[in-house]
Amino acid sequence: MDDEPTAGEETDAAASGADTAASETATADDPPAGDAETADVDDATDTTDTSDVDDAGMDDATDTADTDDEQAGDEESAANDEVPTDVRKYERFTKMDGSQYDRVNEFLRDRTYITAREWAIARLCADFRTETGVEMTKIGENLPELVPFMTDTYTPQAVNQARDSFEGKVTKAGATFLYGAMSGFFTAEELDDLMYEVTEVAKFLLEVEGVDLAVADELDAEERISAVMRDVREQSAELRSEEVECPNCGHTHSLEESE
């Protein structure tokens, strides 16, 4: 008869079989210890590499921004160095920052014979006059910096042409006005009204250029101009009553008769 295992032996065998099964299951499900360590190292390496790349990108962006700022600063500094000191300090026409040439031109054409170009350049020629003449090259090359509503540079020839045009128009306008004042077409009151109107336009242009006119000075100037014009009218009346020799025919005529 074969020997049969006792109850204790059966219990030990069962326990041994359970341990073996558990060991095989654990071996099949879990990766080797070496693989687990390698995966952890790879993850750490990936994280570190990404951080390095991001930092490098931010550094490059920062360097680029710094470079752009430096270049912009260098360009601005170079531009300032090229502009003469007296041009940078010129403060006329600052009240017209943002104004457009067309609007300024329209205003002047409605009230005067001159254009915005002639007005601005005539003022600059008076301000940049030296003992040897007018600095037309400086005016032309720096015209946009000197006058807000001027956008293009001018050659010295163009500056000279605009100044000559201004002087010619002032001469013609002066002759026209003086003839009107001397001709007797206006009464004393009408002449005063006319002088007030044209004086207001002239004062406005001066104020735009930066001239600070006190009220007392304005009233004094208006009174002196009116006094001069009254004298002009009186003298012209006497002149019209005199006889003069005609330069064409040589005959003597009364100015009042010829009118």
Rg, rounded, reads 48 Å
Unreliable parts: 6-18, 20-39, 255-259
Q: Looking across the biggest beta sheet, what order are the strands in?
A: 1-2
Beta strand %: under 5%
**Arithmetic mean of pLDDT:** 76
Structure explained in plain terms:
By secondary structure, the protein is mainly alpha-helical. Among the domains are: 92-180, no CATH class; 183-259, no CATH class. 73% of the residues lie in helices and 4% in strands. It contains eleven helices and four strands, in the order αααααββαααααββα. The strands form two sheets. It has a two-stranded antiparallel sheet. The longest helix is centred in the N-terminal third of the chain and has 50 residues, at 33-82. The chain is elongated, with a radius of gyration of 48 Å. The model is unreliable at 6-18, 20-39 and 255-259 (pLDDT under 50).
Tags for this entry?
4 strands, disordered C terminus, elongated, 4% strand, single chain, two-stranded antiparallel ribbon, mainly alpha, 11 helices, 259 residues
Task: Please write out the topology.
Elements lengths: L6 H23 L3 H50 L2 H4 L12 H11 L4 H12 L1 E2 L2 E2 L1 H6 L1 H4 L9 H27 L5 H21 L6 H27 L1 E3 L6 E3 H4 L1
Can you describe this structure in just a few lines?
With 259 residues, this protein is mainly alpha-helical.
